[in-house]
Amino acid sequence: MAPVQFQSKLYFSLSLLLFLPSTITSQSNRNVPLGSSLTTESNSSWLSPSGEFAFGFQQITPDGGYLLAIVFDEIPERTVAWSANRNNLVPRGSKLELTTSGHLVLTDPSGRHVWSPNSDPASHAAMLDTGNFVLLAANDSSTLWESFQEPADTLLPTQTLEQGSQLIAKYSKSNHSQGRFKFILRRDRNLFLHVTHYPEMRAGISYWPPTTAVGGQYYTGDRVVFNQSLSLDLILNNGTVVFPVFNSNGGSSSRDFYHRVTLDYDGVLRYYEYPKSNGQSSNKVWSSVYFKPPNICTAVTGDMGSGACGYNSYCELVNDQYPKCSCPPGYILKDSSDESKGCIPDFAPQDCRLQEGNSDAFELVDMPAVDWPLYDYESFEFYTEDMCRQSCLSDCQCALVVYGKFCWKKKSPLSNGRVGDDKTEKSLVKVRRSNSTTSSPHVEKKRKGLVVIIIIGSVLLASSAFVILLSAMFLSMKKKKKNQDSAASRAFLDRQNDLLSRNLRSFAYCELELATERFKEVLGSGASGIVYRGVLPNNNQRRLVAVKRLDNTVSEIKDQEFETEVRVIGGTNHKNLVKLVGFCNEGLHRVLVYEFMSNGSLAGLLFGEEGQSRPNWYTRMEIACAVARGLVYLHEECSTQIIHCDIKPQNVLLDESMMAKISDFGIAKLLKANQTRTMTKIRGTRGYVAPEWFRNMSITTKVDVYSFGVLLLELVCCRSKLETEAANEVEVFLANWAYECYSDGQLRKLVENDDEAMNDVENVERFVKIALWCIQDDPCLRPAMKKVVHMLEGSVHVPTPLDPESFISNI
């Protein structure tokens, strides 16, 4: 037998022996007979044989809220290892009973059923020395139910975490109800730490572990084992260790120390030790010896959610591993008893109703080395710090800017705040100049006006002529100041536009020939031209770009019109839009140069080669939200409204972090700010084109909504809009099939062989309903993209969709 095979089989045999204490009950125990009971007043519990663990009621709140729990009974802290009713504390007078019929039942003083495990009738129960409480069968004493199968936030030695099982952190240090974080071995065998969509318990962004060095894949296994050698490992069914979460390395023994692994309320998974009475250490406290992730402040960062701390607060690591959530200058805790709820401004925000947003009443306070990643609504690459400051002060929507290599502008509420490692960056938070003035500027203006009226009234009593003269002088000064302010505002906007134009580089055609090796490597092609890979010199480095050489139709546009459109494209600035780097306008050569997107197109990801791994369900949900946000910006938030007209997976690109960005919007038909509709020839791609293109109807932003609906169905199902069944070569329209599955109540057919989506059918249904609204035949029935975003995020209810009726009319 080969040495490797022998070692694997030996490890498997040993690992089975290590698991035995959690699965057999032949060890000594104190049986709990039928008819036994505990009450909150009795101050008694069911003990393990050694007395180290106790099962009973623990008073949690001073007003008499009780938790039914397993605790470490021989230490003063009586630390909770497991609880049954963490989300529903019971009052004084409640009772736990192992009934004569063999059922374990928790009731409140009125006799209302609160909790009971799902189990067949037992003959007796036992609290084991492992910390596991079990219900046992009469005939063979086999285990019918055990607390180890339904963990709360803690794992104990000999305990395993099976596929689909999870730890959910408690809400706060003193509140044992389910909180914001979970540690889960998903049914797809991936092991993750997740932020939850609190108060829902569905998983949000994952923040640990990092991907492996090879292939960017996550570690996968069949179970997580806290074995008797005191290591926590992700293993395969054959006992092979895939990934050691915590490795004891021959440290302290179970004879001298208690051990537990707990997902704490701050989102950190920690391995704790506590010295027993016969241990060598005299320091009787729980000590954290290992923890993951290394820095929770920088680990939790996502497009959705507040980050490691609440909104408008920032996270800082103290004592090497424990996060502290703090408010920026001018902000206070939303709830002084719970820092996780974030912060609110302790001043009246800048009022957009006032001219210039009353910017002179505000200032920016420096926060060195504090960063707020993502959620930028505008950024500038070549701004000085003074320009960055002025841009925020003059913008009533700006709550903070991060200044470093770029100038990033943020709206309220602020998210993902943390003290970072980059000392060259700093945050500038906007506050009122006088923090003692907390009334709104609108009210303050009225108050000042009232004082002026009283003074003028007094003067009127003395001399009406003086009042007239005073009024004339006042009006003259006010008009002069208004003209000065308007001139200053126009000058600032002119400087911004000028800088924006200078951000776009004008390339000579020969430069782009050199950068692309005479247009050698094709990245993709579309209706308006071919995209090539290019490399530009950039401060002694190489910068990858995507060079789009436009076809002859676009080259016929007049120079002035082309450059006007380029300025509009360059003026767009959103994290979900591909950034324009520069352009070439040389004779018949019209070229656009974009940032390079290293992960290619969404089409390649969804419909790549057979056998190629598809993006997981959570990644597809994030991509859908990202594309929707990019369309909201194009339709409603940029200075010149843009209708894309060709939304499809080929025009959604992915950067190195899998952030989705919309491309090819620079060739779309542009609408002036005061226009809402336009008529033009049919554009777009078969299968994504809205029916109004074929009916001589006005073209609005709703054509993009239709295309997005088709793309959303493709993201849900990982299928193309139009597929051919090999058996009979019949084309199958995805939209038809999706509506049939929805109306027949068979949504699971859409996501077969996708365990993540199958386990999240509620969100699958929500996304399908949104898509069916988007592809309604009547444009008026389609929601605007801003409402689509709200529905995707779950903040707006999605009603039952109508039959779209027109699936095939535009194919």
Automatic annotation (TrEMBL):
Reaction equation(s) it catalyzes: L-seryl-[protein] + ATP = O-phospho-L-seryl-[protein] + ADP + H(+); L-threonyl-[protein] + ATP = O-phospho-L-threonyl-[protein] + ADP + H(+)
Domain Bulb-type lectin: 31-148
Family: Belongs to the protein kinase superfamily. Ser/Thr protein kinase family.
GO CC terms: membrane
UniProt keyword list: ATP-binding, Disulfide bond, EGF-like domain, Glycoprotein, Kinase, Lectin, Membrane, Nucleotide-binding, Receptor, Serine/threonine-protein kinase, Signal, Transferase, Transmembrane, Transmembrane helix
Binding-site residues, ATP: 548
Transmembrane segments: 450-475
UniProt membrane topology term: Single-pass type I membrane protein
Signal peptide (from-to): 1-26
Protein name in the entry: Receptor-like serine/threonine-protein kinase
CDD domains linked to this entry: B_lectin, PAN_AP_plant, STKc_IRAK
Subcellular location as annotated: Membrane
PROSITE patterns tied to this protein: BULB_LECTIN, PROTEIN_KINASE_ATP, PROTEIN_KINASE_DOM, PROTEIN_KINASE_ST
Chain ranges of the Protein kinase domain: 517-808
Main location: membrane
Molecular-function GO terms, alphabetical: ATP binding; carbohydrate binding; protein serine/threonine kinase activity
Keyword Membrane: yes
Statement: the UniProt record of this protein carries the keyword Nucleotide-binding: yes
Enzyme Commission number(s) from the entry: 2.7.11.1
